[in-house]
Give the backbone structure.
Amino acid sequence: MNNYFSKLQPFEDLQFKDYNGYRGLEYFVYFRLTSSRGNRGVGGGSNSYVRTSCLATVVLYTPGSSSTYPNNPPEHGLRLHFLGGAREVGNVGCVLEDKTGTRLLIDYGLAPTKPPRYPSEAPPVDHAIITHAHIDHIGMAPWLSAHGTLLHGTDLTASVSEIMWADTYKVSDIEGYPLAWDKRDMEIALDSWVPHQFETWFDVGEWRCRLHPAGHIPGAAMIEIKTPDFTILWSGDIDTRDSPNAPKANPLDCDILCLEGTYGGRIHPDRAEEEARFVSRVLEVASRGGVALVPAFASGRGQDILRILHREAPSLNVHYDGMGTRVTREWLGCPEFINEPRAMEAAFRWSKRVTGKSDRKKALGADVIVTTSGMLDGGPALWYLNRLRHDGSNAILLTGYQAEGSGGRRLLERGTLPIFGKQTRVPLEIDKFDLSNHADHESLCKFASECNPSNVVLFHADEAAAKALAEDIAVERKVHIPTNNDTLEITNIS
């Protein structure tokens, strides 16, 4: 702590606090902190934080001071150490290291729950590869850069990162949750990007790496790693189907496959049939004079919805609001990552983009409003919902995953959700559509088989999903279900 704070006066009322399942120290401090690096949080993985009576909440840790990561390289094989993302969805971060001392961190995100879940503290790393710009994979990356880590990823991931980090910082400030980094760290992170094109090799220590399309969203990458002993494929979040905007993931031969398992044990409906069902429902709502409110993730789902509606129902009056409009502009600046970029541009121009309060009021008379947040946890979606809920001709069409505790999940289960701090009943028709851009159980098993690894490591999956996948995949190969903060070493690939 002395590395970061030149002056820390005595405090009182020291106590432990259960912070979203983590035990951390909460200090009630009655003085001002003077920092050699400014008054800012440094880290978050230990989930201990300081709250002062006069200053904002901050998170404290120094890299290496409380990390669970082993001090020395493994003597044999490959070490994988999950800081987050093992036996859970999101919150991803994993350190890979072998006997050469080459150390690589893949992703460093946070789970955008209320309050957020943070990964454990990362050890010092020179290089991190970020698979894509969703907050559960990128949310903690500015903390890394503030401690000298270079960030590798596609051009599009790098360009979208500023939008995602700025939004994370804003939400943290509004909600009052601790955040491990500040605006200065974000600026450092933006200067720390080393962008790569797909299929182009680059070196990390003694390893060779290259990125491949993951199919999840435009710019999302799988990572192929060649060490002196193994070929590793890290899937990131993958979809083995072409989505409206992203080319699919294709299998690659490897010795060790690190495979996401979000939808382990579950099968998606036919994509074309589900899109048709969605369009039919939108037209039904519009025909009776109602507004279809479509909460959608800013990077991926919102753009997919625009493409589908523009293709299938171009006569509709569709308004597009929220952070997704800025993300889409970044997409269009990197057309090489998009399926049929001209079609995406046409759909974007066709929609009526909301840019201010007057536009938002006009949108209330639209056929469809596509807006953030996708889980109804904030953003313009709540503003619209609060005004649309009084007219039974309107409807809410959920198109993405609704996490436990999210506004969307509460709405599905209870018919209520918090709107501006008040639990509010929403007496509207609510439908849910499976338009996921993750591979389902059958697709993941097929992908694993076609990669032909000797070892499969399952992550980004709750325990039930991981076990369902393991049961089918283990027929042909060895399967590992790691635990956060435990070290997994793979020494045998025969």
